[in-house]
Amino acid sequence: MADILYILKEKCPNCEKGDIFESKGNPFLFRMPKMHRRCHNCDYNFIREPGYFFGAMYVSYALTIAEMVAVLILGKFVIGLGNIYIFVIIMIMAVVSSTFNFRLSRTIWLYMFRKKKTPGHIEV
Ligand SMILES: [Zn+2]
Hints:
Shape: elongated
Number of helices: 4
Strand order of the largest sheet: 1-2
Largest sheet: 2 strands, antiparallel
Oligomer: single chain
Bound molecules: zinc ion
Number of domains: 1
């Protein structure tokens, strides 16, 4: 349960203190978030191999679809908006939440495949 808080705070999966991202990015300025290569607190390697975050795209896809379906249900069945308004709202939401989804999907990916360091463990 506590992992959810650390995921939302974007903290290191090993020590849960160091930040994963050095900048949050801004979709309006076309700036993507920037990651640290290693944790500043415990030296955990965030980028384990080239293409490590390829799978995070699937996590991002699932997050985006969940958000889109939530907006669709809210707009169509709760508020009662027309289809074109819902479509426009979903497109705007997809752009605005793009950097958030990017960071969240990578953080979830890191937590899914984390290797907790044990004392005496030497990382290559
Ligand atoms: Zn750390």
